[in-house]
Structure formats: structure tokens, C-alpha cells
Amino acid sequence: MSKILSALIAGLLFGLGLLLSGMSNPAKVLGFLDVAGRWDPSLALVMAGAICIAFFAFRRAERQSHSLLGEPMQLPDKSRLTGRLVLGSVLFGIGWGLAGICPGPALVLTGMALPAGAWFVLAMLTGMWLARLLSRWLP
Amino acid sequence: MEMQIDWASFTPAASLAGGMLIGLAASWLVLMNGRIAGISGMLGGLLDRAGDWPLRLAFVLGLLLAPLVWLVFIGGLPALQLDASLPRLLLAGVLVGVGTRLASGCTSGHGVCGLSRLSPRSLLATLSFMLSAGVTVYIVRHCLGWA
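Output (C-alpha cells, whole complex):
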């Protein structure tokens, strides 16, 4: 039970961070991505703020085999550079640039009871399902 | 061409503080649960009916509940602006879904957690999606002239 509660708290903190930082405002995200227009550099500071905290946590996590709640550390592989990684990231970037919404903010917008957020999440889940079919044909 | 900075929209303090809160959330999840706070990965695992779905669902629920908690404890939600039409929103959503699953991560998993772990894989992913998002916004705004 404490493991579930802990994950809920992490999701909650994450969502509050997205709201506070401006990441959940699509217009602000697009203002950051639009380097050639009137550029809003704010979101660079979101990334910097997140990394300067998480860097220390991950350094500690990588030295340990189990978490504080006794679960095994599940850290993905760091070094496999594949075509699928680049193809997927490029497709994700196109979608992100089209609407200014990435997966975390999509959930936060849905939590704000915005129909647009819910539509985006539904489309995103459809895309995730498509990726599973597509995976069969990709190396 | 000289770069124009939109100082009127620039929110350094809130963005830095919000970013640190995101970093705290990712730190919490990895130190307490031993897991990467990747939102596309959490959702993808839910779709795949992975064995650890209760944990994934709890994390996703936390994100969904964040606006309500904000509203109760802080008050008025931050303003936002969403201009994309429904067809554009749906296309964007599908691309985000397909792309993040093929790449095994998004802005949170690769961008925040992966870069914090100094993962070359996440660095390549982050550079790829930042570049393609920037090019997309350039084409949409400055070549096609959409809002």
C-alpha cells in the first residue's frame, strides 16, 4: 500500500511542478520552441531546475540495488543508440510542436476537465497502441 | 537575424521552482519506488496491462489530481492558452503516442530522468525531439503561417 501511495505522491508533485513551471500551458511551450519568433526561454529553466535536483537522486539510486521501500531498482539501459529511438523521438517532436502538449501536461490538462486535454490523451493512447503494432515491423 | 526574447512572457522564478518540483518528484519515485518517472512509459505499461499496473495507475492518478489539489490548497489555476483545432490536436496526440512508445520515453523519461542520469541514449532522444519540435513550430508558424 505504501508503494502505491508513494507513486501517487510522486505523480502529484510532478503535476504540481508542471502547473507551476508553465509546462502545462501549450502556448508557453510553443513560445519556447519558437526560437525564430519572440522566444520565451522559461522552459529551459524547467529542465535545468529538474535536472539539478534529480541528478543527485539518480547518482544515489544507481549505487543501490533496492529503493527505500524495498523495491528493486529498475533503471533502463543508457547506451543503446538505435534508429527506433531517433525515429520515435522525431515523431514525438513533430506532435509536440503541432500542439505544444507532451504526455505529462496532457494528463494535467485532462485533470483540469478540459475536453481538449481528454481528446489529446485519447489520441495519444491510440498512438501508443499503434506503436505496438508498428513495432512488429521495425528492427 | 537577431534573436528576439519575449521578456513579457519570461517567468524565470516560477519555471525554475516548478522544474525543481518536477526534479523532486522524479527523485522521490526513484528513491522510494526504484522507478523512472517517465509518463509515456507509465501510460504505455498501463495499456500493456503490465503486472505493476497499480503503481502506474497511482502515478497517473496523481498527475490527473494535481489541478484539483492546486485549486484546493493554492487557489486559482494558472492561466493557459490552447489554440490548436481538434483535428490538429488529434494528429498531434497520435504522433506523441506513437513516437514516445517507439523511443521508450518523452520529455520526462528521457528529458528529465535520462539527462539527470547522464544517459547517452536519452541525450540523443532529447536532442532529436527538441530539434524536430523546433523545426515543426518553425514550419507551422513561419512557413505555413498558422496560429
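The helical segments of chain B are 12-33, 39-47, 53-73, 86-102, 107-116, 120-143.
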